[in-house]
Amino acid sequence: MRQQPDIIIPDSVVMPRTECRTTANGVKIYILDSEDFEVVRFSFIFRAGTSMQHKPFTASATVNMISEGSQSKTAQEIAEMLDFYGSNYDANIDRDYAYLSFVSLSKFFDKTAEVAEEIILHPSFGNKELQIYCSKRKQGLAIERKKIDVQSRELFGKALFGEEHPYGKTSPEIEYDNITRDDLVALYNELYTANNCFIVCSGRVTESVLRTIEDIASKLPQGRARGVEFPAPTVTHRIFKEDDSALLSSIRIGRLLFERKHPDFVGMQVVATTLGGYFGSRLMQNLREEHGYTYGVMAAMVNFEREGYLAIATQVAKEHRDDALREIYFEIERLRNELISEEELQMVKNMMIGEILRILDGPFGIADVTIENIMCGYDNSATEQSVDAILAITPQEVQRLAQKYLEREDLVEVVVG
For the residues of 372-415, what is the DSSP string, one character each? Predict the structure, then answer.
């Protein structure tokens, strides 16, 4: 007879601490050394997200074009060098930060670092490459915006923050026609600077590796801090956009709350997970399993540098739109009016702790969590404290948070379809 093994959830999580060095020009380098791996990842993180741009789409254009040729190498030569040595380069951007990450086998680190220096310190931002990029992105965005889930996501941002807020602002795709090389050079010179950067290194980080990364970082121009004026959010509680051609309706419900530093943030993560954070969540059981309105629904807390919010998102057949809305609000009210059972709450805790352990399974996952902690002004003990808070939460606390933050009149509703 086969017996399923017991599920064992640890009563604590220990996060590796970082060593920190600071270069002469002020760049902090956080080190997570692991001798068990013959690989190195180093990430340059710049406060150069889309909320920092003066002109639409220039922040994303800059981070995506930064590897498309340098002063001494073409884009093809850069790509071929990385490919030849089995190295990986990835560029990403969000509302607050731009991320340039390199992964290399330890034995080819020096060659990878040579390419990294070209990309980070000497981008050429060629006119021809920029025209191709803008043309592709303009066409791609136009196609994406025909999808109702993209429309609802953009409208949800506007509803939460307002059209003039950096976190809620969107621009027409025709703005790609107005981007020039000078725009990218100006943004790069202003934001890709020493005072606007930190670095996280993980894997086998030897002293030689550190010296090389320090050398690259020390060549970044000093720069100067630039603040961005963030207007107070202006909330619109209901937006409905009719689209007769759509077979589905895209629904987003939530509200503006607080960033991760708030003492109730972790508790609201538990609330969100209970509602729609895993396959057996209440909204999944209701909308998918019981009624068959949708293939999936999610709920999560979203954290930006200056704000945070709760979001519930799903797509349903248009004939079930009103029914789905009713059931979403029903589950919210049930969480507010009835104590969650100890058994269900334990399942939610297990899912959340299990996901944290999955992310932390390896040096690169630990590095990703470290980056998030640094951006929030924390060290890695913050992850341990979050786990402790999840394990300690009670049914009464879940209900208190739901009653405090999920009143119907405070919620934002966006429907497209």
Answer: HHHHTT--THHHHHHHHHHHH--HHHHHHHHHHH--GGG-EEEE
